[in-house]
């Protein structure tokens, strides 16, 4: 066991704080819209930190540890090409802004508004199935991570019974996530995810600083330079022999980033919970700092230091213990049947075990406790968000459309809780028996693409193109789903060494899906869809839900995306946030030019110096951002509590659609006040103090 009593005390303290936060949300969860979207009272910092933590998760960290152990700093370089895409997405609020304008509580509800009820159910079924396949491995990866990190024995005795650690740890972790989700729905999820995110960002900075103090840069440099030709850890132009994470992996990643906003529904509650569309845009804009800085420092420094620890001669004696533990994972103690699957599965587990086993041996007491608590927060934040999303989708988009008699708010919420519990049982059983054989990143990419490959087209086309048709949506979704399913079956069951990677199969599915949507729409539609009604613009606008369109822009500044919704403070925040990817994109272009024009390219020593400066710059920025986002997040949380105390829940705002409109916007809705209730409006938002 790696954990000291003080480490367990730190973990217990975090759990107590999170439990108090979840319990405090329970009394505000009175309506379906409250359970699903926190009564649309979320502020930008609260959303960006909480959603960032929900999207991080232990499984995301494990796959990035796997990836960056193999490719080192080169992953950063090729990701810099995303700069222009990130800027466009941020300033336009790409997809997220318009989705929030629809006031839909789920993505499939938007599909019913834009396309049809049958398509809502179909898309809900596909999304739910793809989500369960993808989500199914999360508990197993997380449980093993904690077993390896904490040094928990594979079996232990309780009351004379021998219990296997793997299912027991999974059960405890899923149970904690389930309780938080049950207590207060999206309100509790958002509060606890924010607290976990704040804690994690502080701890990650501490851990990275400790590792950079423990390992001298010359030791790290020796390790980075020891990589064979074609698999460089510092030179992004020397990746000719890297099969999985070459430069095309990152090029496709840029395309996917632009294509799939909203498509992946694991964090669906955050897409509809902002107080208005502009706050959604600002929250998503700020969330770009998460991966560019706050998360980037951990997922690079940690695996690179682990590689130094495991391969550098200075640490050979200490590392031998970890190597022995990693090698103890073999076919004999796993008890699996198929020999080919055994070897792939064992290799997959060893890759996952490498970083947590090394970190468990490296970190001293207190620091280890902080790290375990932060990773526990990462696990809970992803699982409570995903449980909430997939359980809600099952009821809202698959069950409720067939139910003729509407449910009352309390009964409806209990149906949602029942579905969430069913999803929890499923992922426990799936993780217990399923053995994935690919890199986690590849498995997640291809399993998610079963839905996202077609959904991205349907979402973007539905939000931005009035000529998109229902027939095109059906065709696009089906062809994207079939292409991805075929790829997943080939990679998982027929030929794991198939010449296309999971990322490349995803790209093929996207290209086919887009082509089909455009072709079918151009052939079929004769009358444009009423976008103003769906987006509540012009004569369809709702009090408290005011938003703008770039078509109304009068000045050059507004046409660039800085609409009249932007306060002076918003503009400063946006300029600083957008300048960061722009500067790094310029560095990327200059670096590529130097590489092409200089004989011999950029030297290895130059790359080492560049990455050393980059590391300390990112670590310093992470401290600044953590302070900034923490203050802003607590202000948003205080504001949300105040609004929830006085907010009048609208029982008709429950996800139903009548005649192509949300029920609470129609004459069919029976309530004391005929207008939909909005949590906030722009005037109040502008008056509040902001960070």
Describe the structure.
With 691 residues, this protein is an all-alpha fold. It has 2 domains: 5-434 and 529-545 and 568-656, Up-down Bundle (Sodium/glucose cotransporter); 438-465 and 467-527, no CATH class. The chain has 27 helices and 4 strands. It has a two-stranded antiparallel ribbon. Residues 335-341, 671-678 and 680-691 have low confidence and may be disordered. It is found in: Cell membrane.
The CATH topology of the largest domain is what?
A: Sodium/glucose cotransporter
Which oligomeric state applies?
A: single chain
User: At CATH's second level, what is the architecture of the largest domain?
Assistant: Up-down Bundle
Could you tell me the mean pLDDT?
A: 86
CATH class of the largest domain: Mainly Alpha
Counting DSSP H or I runs of 4 or more residues, the number of helices is 27
Beta-strand residue percentage:
under 5%
Kindly, what is the distance between the CA atoms of the first and last residues, rounded to a whole number of angstroms? 43 Å
Number of domains: 2
Unreliable runs, pLDDT <50, ≥5 residues? 335-341, 671-678, 680-691
Rg on CA atoms, Å: 25 Å
Q: Estimate the helix proportion, in percent.
A: over 70%
Say how many strands there are.
4
Family: Belongs to the sodium:solute symporter (SSF) (TC 2.A.21) family.
GO molecular function: symporter activity
Membrane topology: Multi-pass membrane protein
Keywords: Cell membrane, Ion transport, Membrane, Sodium, Sodium transport, Symport, Transmembrane, Transmembrane helix, Transport
């Amino acid at each position: 066991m790696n954990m000291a009593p003080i480490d367990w005390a730190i973990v217990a303290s975090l759990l107590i704080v999170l439990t108090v936060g979840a319990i405090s949300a329970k009394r505000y969860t009175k309506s379906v819209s409250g359970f699903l979207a926190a009564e649309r009272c979320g502020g930008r910092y609260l959303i960006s930190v909480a959603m960032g933590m929900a999207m991080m998760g232990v499984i995301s960290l494990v796959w990035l540890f796997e990836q960056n152990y193999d490719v080192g700093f080169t992953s950063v370089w090729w990701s810099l090409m995303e700069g222009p895409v990130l800027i466009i997405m941020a300033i336009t609020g790409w997809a997220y802004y318009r989705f929030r304008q629809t006031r839909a509580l789920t993505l499939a509800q938007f599909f019913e508004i834009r396309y049809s009820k049958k398509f809502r159910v179909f898309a809900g079924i596909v999304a739910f199935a793809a989500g369960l396949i993808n989500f199914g491995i999360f508990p197993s990866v997380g449980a093993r991570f904690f077993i390896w990190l904490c040094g928990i024995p594979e079996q232990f005795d309780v009351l004379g019974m021998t219990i296997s650690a793997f299912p027991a740890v999974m059960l405890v972790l899923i149970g904690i996530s389930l309780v938080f989700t049950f207590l207060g729905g999206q309100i509790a999820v958002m509060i606890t995810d924010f607290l976990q995110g704040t804690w994690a960002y502080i701890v990650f900075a501490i851990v990275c600083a400790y590792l950079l103090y423990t390992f001298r840069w010359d030791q790290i440099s020796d390790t980075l330079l020891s990589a064979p030709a074609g698999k460089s850890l510092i030179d992004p132009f020397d990746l000719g022999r890297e099969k999985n994470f070459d430069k095309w992996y990152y090029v496709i990643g840029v395309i996917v980033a632009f294509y799939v906003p909203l498509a992946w529904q694991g964090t669906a509650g955050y897409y509809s919970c902002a107080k208005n569309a502009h706050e959604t845009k600002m929250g998503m804009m700020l969330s770009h700092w998460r991966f560019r800085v706050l998360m980037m420092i951990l997922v690079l420094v940690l695996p690179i230091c682990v590689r130094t620890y495991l391969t550098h001669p200075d640490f050979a004696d200490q590392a031998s213990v970890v190597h022995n533990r990693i090698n103890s994972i073999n076919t004999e103690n796993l008890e699996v049947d198929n020999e080919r699957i055994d070897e792939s599965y064992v290799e997959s587990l060893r890759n996952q075990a490498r970083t947590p086993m090394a970190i468990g041996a490296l970190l001293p007491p207190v620091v280890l406790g902080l790290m375990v608590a932060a990773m526990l927060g990462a696990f809970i934040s992803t699982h409570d968000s995903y449980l909430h999303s997939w359980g809600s989708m099952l009821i809202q988009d698959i069950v409720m459309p067939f139910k003729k008699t509407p449910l009352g708010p309390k009964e409806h919420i209990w149906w949602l809780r029942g579905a969430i519990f069913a999803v929890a049982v499923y992922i426990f059983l799936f993780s217990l028996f399923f053995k994935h054989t690919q890199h986690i990143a590849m498995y997640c990419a291809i399993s998610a693409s079963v839905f996202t490959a077609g959904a991205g087209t349907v979402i973007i086309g539905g939000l931005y193109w009035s000529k998109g048709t229902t027939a095109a949506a059906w065709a696009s979704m089906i062809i994207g789903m079939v292409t991805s399913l075929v790829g997943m079956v080939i990679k998982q069951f027929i030929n794991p060494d198939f010449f296309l990677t999971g990322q490349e199969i995803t790209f093929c599915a996207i290209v086919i899906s887009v082509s089909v949507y455009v072709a079918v729409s151009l052939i079929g539609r004769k009358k444009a869809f009423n976008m103003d009604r769906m987006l509540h613009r012009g004569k369809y606008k709702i009090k408290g839900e005011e938003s703008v369109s770039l078509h109304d822009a009068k000045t050059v500044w507004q046409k660039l995306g800085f609409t009249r919704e932007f306060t002076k403070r918003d503009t400063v925040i946006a300029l600083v946030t957008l300048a960061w990817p722009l500067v790094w994109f310029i560095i990327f272009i200059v670096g590529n030019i130097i590489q092409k024009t200089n004989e011999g390219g950029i030297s290895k020593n130059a790359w080492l110096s560049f990455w050393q400066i980059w590391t300390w710059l990112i670590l310093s920025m992470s401290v600044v951002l953590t302070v900034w986002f923490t203050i802003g997040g607590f202000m948003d949380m205080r504001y949300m509590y105040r609004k929830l105390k006085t907010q009048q829940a609208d029982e008709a705002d429950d996800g139903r659609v009548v005649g192509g409109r949300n029920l609470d916007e129609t004459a069919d809705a029976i309530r004391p006040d005929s207008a939909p209730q909005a949590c906030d409006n722009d005037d109040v938002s502008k008056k509040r103090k902001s960070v």
